[in-house]
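Contributing new records

If you add data, match the layout below exactly. Sequence lines come first and carry their own label; structure lines follow with theirs. Keep one chain per record. Anything else will be rejected by the validation script.
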Amino acid sequence: MTTLQICGAAVLAAAVAVILRDAGAPHPEALCTVFAVLVMGRVLTNTQTVASFIDRMADGTSVTEYVSTLLKAAGIAFTVDMASELCRSVGEGSIASYVETFGKFELIVLTLPVVSSLLELSMGLLNL
């Protein structure tokens, strides 16, 4: 699906959810959840294509470790954002906040080796 199709489907799903909510349907949030899962599936297919391209470009260079960390961080950020927005759309803002907090700490832990490498490089340059 193209971006225009995704956006059109999102507007349509939101309109149907509002109509269902106004009509007193038992769970209009289910429509939003199904839509979010479908969009996330599309995002994951595109992410795989981008990740393989970046891996091919970085292969054989000294930045492979950094590229790997960058890809993992992007994956964590997208996943946490999608999960927290999904929680908010069904009215669970507190769960969304916990997911976001967990994601932030996971990103910190993931980037510790990169920060350590940068500090070692800085120290090495200062000791010239």
